[in-house]
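Local shape tokens

___
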Amino acid sequence: MRKQLVTNADRIRSHVAESYVAPARRRGDETVTVVARDVLHDLKLRGDRAAAVCSALGRPKFCKEQGLELVHVDGPRSKQSTTTTFTFRIPQRPAVGDRARRHAVRDLRGVGKAMFAALGGGEQWLRREREAFTEPYLDVAPNDRRGRAD
């Protein structure tokens, strides 16, 4: 089996995702801005690798992997400089708790269908449960007004 190589672009995208995008998502930011110079500094890459950083961040692959939208690229005409700035929009996803709470009742619909079918249907099950619940009390006399049994 052949070993998968990690390219510089993969390393750059991974770093930006972990160090810039993930914290911005946790904070609930609408956008995140990444400057090529900062990524070069973080990864201890030389300035001549700015084109690699800009290429990795400017490609649709990064946006698709991270669920981002590239809003603006600012910098020199070549967009391959240490001063190039990328601004990404972070789509706000509904919180897991909100989504779960909104659909909780609807998601339970039909959950007992197979169980009730195995027990002979819902009506049969209810009838047996009622009988089992009241059976021990059938031979006990009702209480009088003072709480004593006859």
In short: Helices lie at 8-27, 36-42, 50-58, 60-66, 96-108, 113-118, 122-134. The radius of gyration is 32 Å. The chain has seven helices and three strands.
